[in-house]
Design brief:
The protein is α/β, with parallel strands linked by helices. The structure holds flavin-adenine dinucleotide. Flavin-adenine dinucleotide binds next to helix 1, strand 2, strand 4, strand 7 and helix 5.
């Protein structure tokens, strides 16, 4: 591995793989880092070695990743799987420093350009009882299926959105019995999305496919429960039942496993830690990093592509990865303006079509407020520090106006996940209580390292690269 690269790409999902392939083909020295053990990102996780033998179960969309992964393996780049990036320098210096851990050792490399393609995470679903064991995100259930062919029988799936229906369908195709699907999508979303149906028609095949999945689930005989207004999960140590209201009545389902999902949101911790500008998106209800037409942020030389910037889906992520790479290569003088613009044209056309569909989708599956902002005081919001909704409201009443003050008062967002599970809920709760726009309330000030690093890993950092320090330089200050 070199210590200096033209381009460092973080994330080997569709966006990162597409960017890496293009960069490699131009002779730019390129390093691709990803914490997973193989390429694929979320959608194509485990694509080089799927644990499930029958290709029908994960479906043809999953196997589209094979070609991308093969292209990546042939590209002239330095690809490092199992490399967890925990810091990127954010000053406007020409070269940026990227710090990562690989095999228990810390490395620091510098890059002229950075492409961040770190993707999405599932939106928090702070229900009463969501911290009980046996309750997971549906995405986690899918990871077990893709990487280990493990599934839980008689689980209850709760939430809404295409990914939830896809995972339920994959379970059904794998022959795993499902207790029920509780669909939390309100009727009002259909009305909200209706004016955008015309945009949705630009991808009518995807629309039809989604409808087919729902039909198949309903036809399978698995109870498909709509019109749910309230939900709670109960159990003494692990989950034992799901309770929900329909038509004002409480109902109960016994189960040992609950899988939650209400959409995905960009993973913003890295770009937040670098102080890139972010905006609250009122449609996707999440923070999105601000980028220009070439996916460049307001930190010169730092590009963000794919779901890590705004939720676009796997196909658009791939095209945006290419566009970010074109932008970076042009800045490095490896591609002239005409070449950059003409190569980008076909990708932009596909994106334009996809964005129209996204407008429809974002409204159709916007998670309802009652499942984003907990009603009951004893619902845990910050899982790491066990801070409840009641405690958060109490602190707001004392005069807390933003998530950073909330950290200081309660340690909310200061645990190992660094706010990934509670950040959105806390911003939205403060916004609701103080009747302020979320943009004004803001988000946690994210600190580095953005992923946990062991002291031992730091200790094994190659000291020879550090400037020698004369003991006297610092001792004096400490002894004063
Ligand atoms: C759990 C989950 C499951 C999903 N499953 C599907 C699916 O089955 N079908 C579908 O259509 N869509 C799925 N999606 C949505 C899908 O992820 C995206 O639309 C698409 O994969 C986005 O591509 P991307 O390249 O932007 O990011 P991703 O595919 O998410 O790739 C990001 C990559 O960055 C890596 N990474 C993140 N942070 C770091 C770091 N600090 N250091 C090193 N590496 C890092 C991750 O390991 C990952 O490999 C899923 C999303 C989630 C969250």
């Amino acid at each position: 591995m070199n210590e200096q690269y033209d381009i460092v790409i973080i994330g080997a999902g569709p966006a990162g793989m597409a960017a890496a392939k293009l960069c490699g083909s131009t002779g730019a020295s390129t390093l691709l880092l990803d914490e997973q053990s193989g390429p694929g990102g979320q959608i194509y996780r485990g694509i080089e070695n799927p644990a499930i033998v029958d290709p029908n179960i994960l479906g043809s969309d999953y196997y589209k990743g094979t070609e991308l992964a093969e292209g990546l393996r042939q590209a002239s780049i330095d690809y490092r799987p199992g490399a967890k990036v925990w810091q990127v320098s954010s000053d406007n210096a020409t070269d940026k420093e990227v710090s990562f851990s690989e095999g228990g050792i810390v490395h620091i490399v510098s890059a002229k350009r950075i492409i961040i393609a770190t993707g999405a995470q599932e939106r928090p679903f702070p229900l009463p009882g969501w911290t009980l064991s046996g309750v997971m995100n549906a995405g986690a259930a899918q990871i077990l299926l893709k990487t280990s062919a493990i599934a839980a029988e008689n689980a209850v799936f709760i939430g809404s959105g295409p990914l939830l229906y896809l995972i339920v369908r994959q379970y059904l195709l794998a022959g795993v019995p499902i207790k029920a699907v509780i669909d939390t999508n309100p009727l009002s979303n259909y009305l909200r999305a209706a004016p955008y149906l015309i945009n949705g028609l630009s991808e009518y095949k995807t629309l039809v496919k989604g409808q087919r999945w729902i039909k198949e689930i309903k036809k399978s005989g698995v109870p498909f429960i709509n019109g749910v207004k309230e939900l709670r999960l109960s159990g003494s140590e692990s989950v034992e039942s799901v309770e929900y209201t329909t038509g004002g009545e409480w109902n109960k389902l016994d189960t040992d496993n609950v899988f939650l999902h209400q959409g995905v949101v960009p993973s913003v911790n890295l770009t937040m830690s670098m102080r890139c500008t972010h905006k609250w998106c009122n449609t996707q209800l999440c923070w999105c990093v601000v980028t220009d037409a070439w996916c460049e942020t307001d930190i010169a030389g730092v590009f963000v592509a794919g779901d890590g910037a705004t939720i676009v889906g796997a196909i658009a992520a791939e095209h945006l990865g290419t566009i970010a790479a074109l932008g970076a290569l042009h800045q490095l003088g490896l591609l002239d303006e005409v070449g950059r613009d003409s190569q980008a044209e076909s990708h932009r056309k596909v994106l334009l079509k996809g964005f129209g569909f996204r407008k429809f989708l974002d409204r159709l599956f916007q998670p309802p407020r009652q499942f984003r902002i907990p009603k009951y005081g004893d619902t845990v919001v910050c899982r790491c520090e066990e801070v409840t909704a009641g405690k958060i409201r109490e602190i707001i009443k004392l005069g807390c106006t933003n998530p950073n003050q909330m950290k200081a008062f309660s340690r909310c967002g200061m645990g190992p996940c660094q706010g990934r599970f509670c950040g959105l809920t806390v911003s939205e709760m403060i916004s609701q209580e103080l009747e302020l726009p979320v943009q004004k309330v803001g988000y946690y000030r994210i600190r580095r390292p953005v992923k946990p690093v062991l002291l031992g890993e730091l200790g094994r950092f190659k000291i020879k690269e550090l400037e020698p320090v004369k003991i006297g330089d610092h001792c004096g200050e400490i002894l004063k």
